[in-house]
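Raw record, unedited: DUF2993 domain-containing protein
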Amino acid sequence: MAHDDPYEERPRRRGRKVLITLVVLLLVLGGLIVVADRVAVGVAERAIADQVRQEIAKQGAQSSPPEVEVGGVPFLTQVLDGRYERISIALRDVQGSVRGDAVALPKLDVDARNVRASLDTIRSGQGDVVAETVDGTGTISYDSLAKLLDRPGLTLGEQNGRLAVTAPIDILGQRLTVTGTADITVGKEGQVALRFNDLNADGLPNQPLARTLLNNYARGISIDVPLPELPFQLAVREVRPLPEGLAVTADARNVPINSATG
């Protein structure tokens, strides 16, 4: 009767131990690579945030510290290639000044794609970080927009997807409440135009003069909105009323998303 040779089992056990050790080493090495990758992402995000802060200050605007997120995995291969899939930048409480009037942007989110930045630029902060495409979405608060119209008691908001206005008005000795909506258009240079063409007031006297006064009020609050210069050379393409404010969509092509230095 055949017996198992104990010497044959030892090489098998040694082989299994070597295999297990190799697997463990690979897992440890993979974990270290992942950690290093995430550490490198953090360093890059802080460097880009600092340069974006300089860009905002250069344009005479203010905001809370930029929040930067570098997308794409793995990150280190993007560093070596000098090209990044996506860099997202979140700006909050953006304040600009146009013609002495403050225009508030409580939120401005920027999504940069196919970003070119050398390793030296990320490491030293010197040089350009250039994005092939940049898309931005911001929100103008209704309060700041109402201040531009400069009519006591006037309030703005969203109603069925349109910009709605409510305001008190004195017409022929009567105190009335005006309501209506505005048409919004974006000009070639990104200028946003508000035109209040359809205003009504309950109790409006049935007289031509009363209607003329109401039409004059509508023309008085129809303005071209003086938007602040958006960062990253963003050009306004669309404006939509939302419950939280006037949503602005903008884009740009082949632009630096940092202040070039050095």
